[in-house]
Design brief:
The chain is of the alpha+beta class. The strands form two sheets. Strands 1, 2, 3, 4, 5, 6, 7, 8 and 9 form a nine-stranded mixed β-sheet that branches. About 5% of the residues have low confidence.
Length: about 475
């Protein structure tokens, strides 16, 4: 079987989709899987039946994993929250019943429009005078400015609301939260509802990664103005929270908003810079490759470990391992490994738009680009510049074609100008990203040198924004469905 990992991943994805469409008992799936596993061991000498059994087993794994991801443990916090129709009457109304939660902050608190939002990991819940140990996450919105940090131990007092209790929350938003295992939310209106506990919790690697990211953001803000700093933080660190909505919408219209998300391109730049530095330091090739892989993992955590970064990191590690083991790398198998890694941990990510766009664009480039290149044959162009423009146009067209249906279905917009925009914007974004990394590194080593990089970086960002604004003004640049 050619590229077995790709085929197994496809059947696993089909199993997830099937599990979302039909209702079936988890234990029934598990029993069926065990039976098939026994049959597989008995059919080792029958190649065709053995292969069919393996693929069917992978399909069942997808179904079972999805069903299992929806099941919550008995100690989950949602099981302690009274539904709105509780027999307790007015006291059982989820909007008026008070709860006390002990736990820690499990995300970076984000301050937006004078309120703070973070994810709270609960460890204990108190209702009246009764306490229970619990688990689960709660989305917390604080209606005032509060200095809070990741991992800080807190006690929160307030109402807990199930997501279906909100009329203003769209289904897409509820699905987005449920993919993060968040089913409850609470709103804090008074500082007295927050009680600080001694000590810190959370993952130590995450705390270190957040410290590195905060340090890098401080350097970017120190040597750049507000607008360029927000764009650079998004392109280098994946932090879009300070990017103005007007600019974000402008890039959505031109189909270039992907440059504000850390993806495979950024991971490639990190690998290039780190490898170059280690090469200058004369570190042996084997250790250099290992250190580059470690740096890619750290960068993945620093940028928030989003789906595009995880995909690119896994693919990069697989490619580096192939060079380390002196084997020919295969991009399709690497892509399948990245998808399988993400979906085994959380199968519901298959329905996430970011996941779909990330993998669809790469798949489209992998399968369409060689065929279109062979059809047009840019090698015959006399001037190298025309060859580069043609190849860049083909890559942009393939990525646009691969994501066209997903974008149109979810965002109700089609932007034909995307192909043209990416020809100019992507190379420019590459230079800006490279300058951004150089700015951060020079800010750490030699702050006076960082001023030299901040000036051209700011000029390039302003030019990029002006170019993007001019592109979306072209006739038929985009239209809404």
């Amino acid at each position: 079987m050619k590229r077995p990992l790709v085929i197994l991943t496809v059947f696993y994805c089909f199993g997830i989709i099937l599990g979302d469409l039909i209702w079936v008992n988890f234990w029934a799936i598990t029993a069926t899987g065990i039976i098939i596993l026994v049959v597989v061991n008995l059919l080792k000498r029958h190649d065709y039946l053995f292969l069919v059994s393996i693929l069917f087993l992978m399909l069942l794994n997808g179904v079972a994993n999805l069903k299992n991801s929806y099941s919550l443990p008995k100690c989950h916090i949602v099981n302690f929250v009274y539904p709105p129709t509780s027999s307790l009457g007015a006291q059982g109304d989820q909007g008026s019943f008070l709860y006390s939660l002990d736990g820690f902050i499990d995300s970076v608190p984000e301050v937006t429009n004078n309120y703070t939002e973070f994810i709270f990991c609960a460890r204990q819940i108190q209702i009246d005078k009764l306490r229970w140990r619990c688990c689960g996450k709660v989305l917390v919105k604080v209606n005032f400015s509060a200095r809070l940090n990741y991992g800080e131990n807190l006690a929160l007092i307030g109402n807990l609301k199930r997501l279906y209790g909100f009329n203003v929350v769209s289904k897409n938003y509820k699905d987005f939260l449920s993919r993060q295992d968040i089913y409850l939310t609470t709103r804090i209106n008074d500082p007295r509802q927050i009680i600080r506990r001694p000590g810190n919790s959370g993952n130590k690697l995450t705390r270190y990664s957040l410290w590195v990211r905060a340090k890098a953001e401080d350097i970017i803000r120190q040597f750049s103005e507000d607008l360029p700093a927000s764009i650079l933080s998004a392109m280098v660190l994946g932090q879009k929270r300070n990017v103005p909505l007007l600019i974000n919408n402008s890039m959505v219209k031109s189909g270039t908003v992907h440059i504000l998300v850390v993806s495979g391109f950024n991971v490639g730049i990190v690998a290039f810079i780190v490898n170059l530095l280690f090469k200058i330091m004369r570190i042996p090739r084997r250790w250099r490759i290992i250190l580059v892989m470690v740096c890619l993992i750290v960068y993945c955590f620093v940028t928030g470990a989003s789906n595009p970064v995880i995909r690119a990191t896994i693919m990069g590690i697989i490619f580096l391992l192939s060079y380390l083991l002196k084997k020919e790398p295969d991009i399709c198998s690497s892509l399948a490994a990245a998808a399988l890694f993400i979906l085994v941990i959380n199968p519901r990510q298959l329905f996430d738009v970011g996941f779909q766009l990330s993998f669809a664009s790469v798949l489209a480039i992998v399968y369409l680009y060689p065929r279109l290149k062979a059809l047009i044959n840019p090698e015959e162009f006399r001037f190298r510049i025309w060859k580069l423009i043609c190849e860049g146009s083909l890559v942009s067209f393939c990525a646009w074609l691969g994501t066209l249906g997903i974008i149109a279905f979810n965002f109700h917009i089609i932007a034909p100008v995307t192909v043209l925009a990416n020809i100019f914007v992507v190379p420019l974004a590459a230079i800006i990203t490279l300058c951004g990394f150089t700015l951060v590194l020079s800010g750490l080593v030699c702050p006076s040198l960082a001023n030299l990089f901040s000036i051209p970086t700011t000029m390039l960002i302003n030019f990029l924004l002006s170019l993007n604004a001019a592109i979306i003004k072209l006739p038929f640049a985009y239209f809404y469905l």
